[in-house]
Amino acid sequence: MNAAIVLSLGHPLRSDDGFGERLLQRFEQRYEIPEQVLCLHGGTRPVAHYDRIAGCRWLIVLDAVRYSDAGSDLRVIDPLPVLDCERQLAVHELGLAELLQLMAVLGEAPARVSLVGAAFASLDWGPALSRALEQRLPQACERLATLLEHNGIRLRQRAPQGDPACTS
């Protein structure tokens, strides 16, 4: 069983909704992913990965979200509290909150859930992130790595390939 599953969420053609996907791509480019970590590209249908997520030890979700307070801050929430289905954070068909509640009812909820997220500024159609979220990718990549490393998962950086979005 994997020590952690990293799940990106979002629609890559809906501007900032593609943040989770872009973050996971950057992370995979920068780091050699160890055996105990499984990276999943969930898109807009996290339920498609139900069988892989069910009962996992640790689910780390990467997504653009709506926060109750203002700002487009990058946040790491660990552990993520139980989500309220009435206030959907993302714009996905069966959202993360609903999926986690379904798993809980079936006795298959992940033991721990964390979020690396940033508030979206735009959900317009198009593949480009807003400037605000594009600028947060390097820090988000580092925060994800730090979260894993502080929990005993050792990462090795790949040789730089000219990707400025994930270099310090």
TrEMBL record:
One of its GO terms (biological process) is protein processing. One of its GO terms (molecular function) is aspartic-type endopeptidase activity. SUPFAM superfamilies: HybD-like. Keywords: Aspartyl protease, Hydrolase, Protease. The keyword Signal does not apply. Belongs to the peptidase A31 family. This is Hydrogenase maturation protease. The lineage of its organism: Bacteria, Pseudomonadati, Pseudomonadota, Gammaproteobacteria, Oceanospirillales.
